[in-house]
Structures are given as C-alpha cells and as structure tokens.
Design goal:
The protein has 314 residues and is an alpha/beta fold. Helices cover 47% and strands 12% of the residues. It contains 12 helices and 7 strands. Strands 3-2-4-1-5-6-7 form a 7-stranded parallel sheet, sandwiched between helices. 34% of the residues are buried.
Amino acid sequence: MNREALDQWIARLFERDRRAAAKLISWVEDDIEREYIMRSILKQTKQQMVVGITGPPGAGKSSLVEALTKLYRSNNERVGIVAVDPSSPYSGGAILGDRIRMQAHGTDRDVFIRSLGTRGHLGGVTRSTLDILRILEGGGFRRLLLETVGVGQSELEIMQMADTVVVVLNPGTGDGIQAIKAGIMEVADIFVINKSDLPGSERMKNDIEMMLNLSCDGKTWRPPVVLTSVINSTGLETLFEKIEAHQVHLLKSGQRDERRKERLRLEVWRQWEDKILAEFERVWEATREKLENYDQADPYEVAQMLWKERFKGG
C-alpha cells in the first residue's frame, strides 16, 4: 500500500475520523503495513489506562460494559470498546454478538465498538488487541474497555493487557470458591457479582471475601467485591468509583509502570514470535525433503539440528 495514502489515513485518525479508525484496525488485523501503522500511531499516544472486563459466559459482561459506557458518556468522555468473541475451530467465524447487545450506543459518534474473533488464539484476546486499543486511543477515545471471551487458565493474558481487571461472576453458577479453581483470584483487581438481584449473591460475596482474607495478606491492593444489577441499576456507581480508585492506586504505588514493563515484554515477544515462526517455516521447507523416514524421525534431534544450523550452535 502507498505510504503517502497511509499517512493521510493516520492523520485523519488523529483528527477523530471514525472511518479512519475502522480502516486502520482492519489493515492491522489483516497484517497490512501493520508495523508502519503502529509505529506512526505509538509516537503520538500516551497509552491511556485500559479496563478489562472478563468472566465466564453469561455473567453479563456486555451488559456491564454498556452500563459503564453510559456512566462515562454522562461525563462527556469518549469510549472505545474492544469486545472479543471466540472463533469457531471449524469455520473460523465468530458471532460477534456484542454489537447487538450494545445497540444503545450504536448511533453515538463518541462510542466506538469493535468486535473481534479470537482467530484461534487461546489467550482470551486476539493478537491484534493491544494494537487496536492504541488505534482507538489515537482516534481520541480516552476511556478504553476490553471485554474478553471468558476466564480461566488460558485467559490470563488480560492481566498483561489491562491496567484494571474486572472479573464478573453471578450467583447460581457455583460457589465463590469455584473462582479459585478457574485461576480467577490471580486475575482480578475488582470482583463484580452481577445479577445480584438473584438469590445467593451475598453468600457468593462472603465466599470470595473469605478467600481474599487468605490470599491478600501483605498486598497493597485488596480487590473489592461489588454487587451489581444492570436490570435494577444498582452498584454501578460503586463499580465506577472502585475502578477510579484502583487506577489512582496504580499511579501512586508505581504498579502502573510495572504493568507497562510486562506489557512491553509481551509485545516485544510477539514480534519475535512472528519472526521466529516465519524463519522456522523457511528453514523447515528447505529441510523436510531431506528427511528420509518421517515415522522414525526424532523430533528432538531434528529440532536441535535445525537450531544449530540456523543459529550456528546457539
């Protein structure tokens, strides 16, 4: 693609052109001039705080994102939302239902909603997620919300992408202790028990508080447990306040810088990963025909041979 034309689209992004944001996101997702686009945008962005919303399917994550967006818009803040849905392992497609659930903001020019498929990535997010958040920031969206597929051992990447991680649970899906088995205690900066109008909310809150008593000793931030109900519009202001309080804590404690260092490590590794994979495919293509017996081949020996050949004994 013509770099001069790209520069024009990037300039339009900084002028808050929504079409430019959509175009650039699509190109980055499709790996078209990705490095050039992102390096141009990163020079002029400050990396605004990202709020990650995660939790099991059906917990009400999208409804909560919509409610938070209303609160931000009431303060005249522009909101960028990235919502990730699982892709089918068969067709590769995704339903991307969040735009349907967030129709209330569909005509608001100061809210940008981008739904993404995981495209086989197991981290609860996509490989392009961080880049897309930065593009939205470049487009003038100062409140950045990231909603992920679900939570579990394979979705812990959200810790590296979001500054404040909100884990959404609801009663009736097992006791609060089940959260620990899914690895949630390590992820959450804030717990939300959504649909708190249903029976069992207080018990779940008490279970989580009990486990926090055991796991938060000596830590500078104890995750609050907030009861919310989008239907009854309860607890939403409290959640808003807890998110703000956590972000103030990150700045005062220096933990924001630590999280940014880890995020940079993740992004650099991804660049390496792409380059290493491309190099492996090149080396493998040149080597595979030389292998005489695939059934008897020792993958450890072949891997070591290729590594030494490529990196000269490294």
